[in-house]
Amino acid sequence: MTESRIFPVLGMMCAACSANVERKLRKTPGVVDVSVSLPGRTASVEYDPSVVTPEDLRREVAAAGYQLVIDGGAGVEDVQRRAFVDLRRRTLLSWVFAALVMLFSMGGLFRDRPFVGNLLCLLLAAACIVFCGRTFFVTALQQAKHRSANMDTLVALSTGISFLFSLWLTFSGSAHTWFDSVTMITSFVLTGRLLEEKAKNGTAASIRALMDLQPKTAHLINLDDDTVSEVPIALLQPRDMLEVRSGEAIPVDGVMRGGNAAVDESMITGEPVAVPKAKGDRLLAGTIVKEGSLRMRAQQVGSDTVLSGIIRMVQKAQGSKAPVQRLVDRVALVFVPAVLGISVLTFCAWMLAGAELQHALVCAVSVLVIACPCALGLATPTALMVGIGCAAERGILVKDATALEQLHKVDTLVTDKTGTLTIPNLEIKASDDLAFEQRETLKPNAAEAIRRLRASGIDVWMMSGDRDDAAAYWAARAGIEHYRSRVMPQDKEDLVRRLQSEGHTVAMIGDGVNDAQALASADVSIAIGRGTDVAMEVAQVTLMRDDLLALNDAVGLSRRTVRTLRGNLFWAFIYNVVCIPLAAGVVPSVHISPMTAAALMAFSSVSVVLNSLRLRRSK
Amino acid sequence: MKCPHCEARVEKQLGRLEGVASVKASHENACVELDYDPAVLSADEIVETIADCGFEASL
Q1: pLDDT score of A73
Q2: What is the DSSP string of A558-607?
């Protein structure tokens, strides 16, 4: 038996970091599968608990220089918060040093006594490295011990070389030093990270919004004396009687036992109108009592609630990797060593070409600084995280990144009829003398949803167990051209496979029971359910809102996500391909100083995250 | 039901329901006896009410 858990991981800065953590975990005996998310700062691990314990995993990751947190909860947020505040402090301080160094080296204050000016700059640059840039060196050393390298290695090397060379220049009596490069590189890299952290927090906003739905306390009713007391929800047990008042969120899943209330379930189902609830109705944690108040009996508490299940699923999906990401990860793993190689090569080439030592060093350092594995590493996961988060906010649960990436390619949709396109009229179903047509009603929006799907280039097939004339009737009502009647579960699967063999990418939508076979063979499986449904377990995508228009939203979101993702990858790639040769000084008249290189690098990684965040605003 | 206290809780909650004439719970015999009007109150509701008190009931 294996177990799956999501652990927060602290200290990951770039794609090389997440690749290192992933490689380390993958090599650990007992670990079956690993997926490390850089923007989510999590590792999703499937492992055999009889072979390896979370404590072993923590030790493995710690050996690679990162922190895997076993006992999650508020502690992690706290640590991350403190790390962020610390980063902000160091960034500000670093800019103070940078400004002073600039003033002393360029302001002309020490024009007559360059040695004094250089000495002052030396002290400031040293302070900047010690107080602001220390982490780069610590991480680089840790990495070096394991014969690996990451972004920090590049920063530590470039600032280190600049500093040592300037030290030598100072004491050899040269007027011009590059202490300004040391402080500026540190400042720009730190600023880039700060903005990146801020933006990454934005990509995780939707999951936090879901978590915040759960109230912290609940009103527990003591049946013996009818008193109500406020207790933390961690203490609630199944079978506790609770009171929920107007405007409050329902704390746990349960059944309504009294009172009168309408409940806003939009956060779970996407349904915008509050639903009136009666005694015996099911209530879900995180939904909000709009009018009136109610009494309920707790049934599922803590991590067993539907909301917790959704949060876990979205988290897992956001940490999962799209196929394209695996390729990017492989590139990231060799990226930093490759850049180190190019840098050394640049230095040697300039020296051989007879250039001055100083020029050769400037070019080599610029190459180290300008290379940006961050942009490459963040391109895919940030776009997917925002895409999956946005989907969850609209009542579309996406189980893995692959499904979201596949969905944009879908050109054929196979749909089940009853339960998906139509609702059976239970009251009158029994009487046999009715036409078939009267036993069911077309779902509102079904025809409109089909029309929009076809307009966006998706061919729709309907499958029904009905007689031919009935199937034809409903297909016409829904605006569907192709249909099959009298189908058995096996036929559904056959049709999906046939369409696939004709070269189509097929999505299958159904209510999950008799469609399971066909769902499993489709390229993308979609269940339409009411949130509490088990269908959530089967399909890759679940429409929580019983409305086919949600399918249009899902397709649109997938297309936009993939477009963003490709744009990100393209620009990140082009950036590195263009900038590294420029920094190396290949183009004669173009000269990129280490400072400019640092600014460009910071800008490129921030722009990738910002581009992903644009998805949140697109409709 | 384990004690007289449990009995009292079940009796109190059932006694409050509309349509219940009399109720007697016994933890020794693990049962509840009650007179009620089936037109006003369903057996399901009785089972659910007992469940509210933290016990399981069958008919």
Answers
A1: 54
A2: HHHHHHHHHHHHHHHHHHHHHHHHHHHT-STT----HHHHHHHHHHHHHH
Shared-domain flag, residues A208 and A328: yes
Answer whether A239 sits within 8 Å of B54, measured CB to CB: yes
pLDDT over 90 at A295, yes or no = yes
Residue A531 pLDDT more than 50? no
Taking 70 as the threshold, does the pLDDT of residue A434 lie above it?
no
Q: Are residues A300 and A314 in the same domain?
A: no
> Which position has the token pair 């776009």?
A383
Q: Is B11 on the interface with A (CB under 8 A)?
A: no
Whole-angstrom CA distances from A482 to A37, A364, A467, A499, A616 are 42, 63, 15, 12, 35
Active site (annotated) includes residue A416:
yes
pLDDT at residue A146 is higher than 80: no
pLDDT, tens digit, for every residue of A169-195?
888 877 778 888 889 889 988 888 888
What is the rounded average pLDDT for all residues in chain A? 85
Number of Cα atoms under 13 Å in the Cβ half of residue A296: 32
Beta bridge partners of A83: none
Query: Which CATH number covers residue A31?
Result: 3.30.70.100
Identify whether the C-beta of residue A378 lies closer than 8 Å to the C-beta of residue A571: no
For residues A560 and A10, which has the higher predicted lDDT (pLDDT)? Answer: A560
Structural domain includes residue B57: no
CB contact under 8 A, A297 and B12: no
Sorting pLDDT into bands at 50, 70 and 90, what band is A68?
confident
Q: Are residues A209 and A219 in the same domain?
A: no
Q: Is the Cβ pair A239, B12 closer than 8 Å?
A: no
Alpha-carbon distance of A48 to A25, in angstroms, equals 13
In a domain, B40, yes or no: yes
Q: Which of A152, A416, A511, A533 is catalytic?
A: A416
Task: Compute the average pLDDT of residues A322-326.
Answer: 75
Range of the domain at B14: 4-52
Report if residue A361 sits inside a domain: yes
Q: Are residues A330 and A209 in the same domain?
A: yes
**CB under 8 Å to A435, separation ≥6 — which residues?**
none
Pick A352 or B25 by higher pLDDT: A352
Residue-range definition of the domain harbouring residue A284: 215-304
Same domain? For A327 and A209 the reply is yes
pLDDT average, residue stretch A593-597 = 85
Residues of A with CB under 8 A from a CB of B: 223-224, 239, 241, 255, 257, 280, 297
Among the listed residues A316, A354, A378, the one whose alpha carbon sits nearest the alpha carbon of residue A571: A378
The answer to whether the CB atoms of A257 and B9 lie below 8 A apart is no
Contact yes or no for A223 and B52 at CB 8 A:
yes
Q: Do both A172 and A234 map to the same domain?
A: no
pLDDT band at A536 (very low <50, low <70, confident <90, very high): low
Same domain, A81 and A176: yes
The interface predicted TM-score (ipTM) is: 0.76
Domain count for chain B: 1
Interface check for B51 against chain A (CB to CB < 8 A): the answer is yes
Residue A536 lies in a domain: no
Q: What is the pLDDT of residue A348?
A: 95
- How many separate domains does chain A show? 5
Does a structural domain hold residue A23?
yes
Whether A130 has a pLDDT exceeding 50, the answer reads yes
Contacts of B12 in chain A (CB under 8 A): 223-224
Kindly list the residues from chain B whose CB atom is less than 8 angstroms away from the CB atom of residue A258: none
Same domain membership, residue A252 and residue A292: yes
Q: How far is CA A498 from CA A108, A434, A465, A559, B11, in A?
A: 78, 35, 19, 25, 64
Q: What is the mean pLDDT of residues A591-597?
A: 85
Does residue A403 form part of some domain?
yes
Residue tagged 């993939």 (tokens): A562
